[in-house]
Amino acid sequence: RERVLRPEHFQEIMAFVSSALSCNGIQRVEFRPVETTCGLVPRAGSSAAPQRTFESGRSFSLKSSFLGNNNFSFSTEAAVNHADAFDFSSILAEVSTDPSIVIEKLGPDTRNKTWYPKAQDVDKNTKKWYVIDAEGQRLGRLATHIATVLRGKNKPTFTPSADTGDYVIVVNAEKIAVTGKKELQKTYFRHSGRPGGGKSETLRDLRARIPERILEKAVWGMLPKNSLGREVFRHLKVVAGPDHQYQAQQPQIMEVNTIPKPNSTRITSIW
Questions:
Q1: Which of 46, 44, 49, 34 lies closest to 2, judged by CA?
Q2: pLDDT tens digits, one per residue of 154-177
Q3: What is the pTM of this model?
């Protein structure tokens, strides 16, 4: 016998149908018209008036955001042959066997999905290798450019929580340039962890001892301080001298100009 759909059943039907049919890409369930009318009635035992009644030929859709935005369109010309207490197993059996029910597969929802890098997008075997000559380049500006390439911010596929960057090889690290009095005034501090184990040295002393450390410290300060930043930092290869040991990766030469152009004209005002 004919039954009506009650408002408290809609959410339960959607949850059940979504969990049962989402694996097949089904997003809409449509009932073919028959000669009857379906309405909305209040809960059992309630004296409230019906919220809304749909006439024959009308249809309405239900949408639930916490169910993955699956839309189910129920035609009001359908005869629902179930008791007030819906039997979910019989609903599934009817959906799969009743010829009066049409199930239209609309495929995955492509409009409401945010793109995220897949495994092949962050695969190390697909990353590019670049080589940069640091001779005469400014320390801070060069470190900014290197950090951008390591993080992948120069790509349209950049994702803050994924490693979408490339490898960077820097040669001639001992010939990097600084301005002003930074050669003598800029200091680097380190500590052994034992009492009284703190040591500091100027940029000139560090350049003579470990020239690669200067650029490594500058780039590390521009990367996130977490597991992603540590992984990205491993993609930086800084060497002293013009030769490196990464010829097998066939790195591409990246031209970088960090020296600002001098002002061609200067306007002075005489008062």
A1: 34
A2: 999 999 999 999 999 999 999 999
A3: 0.58
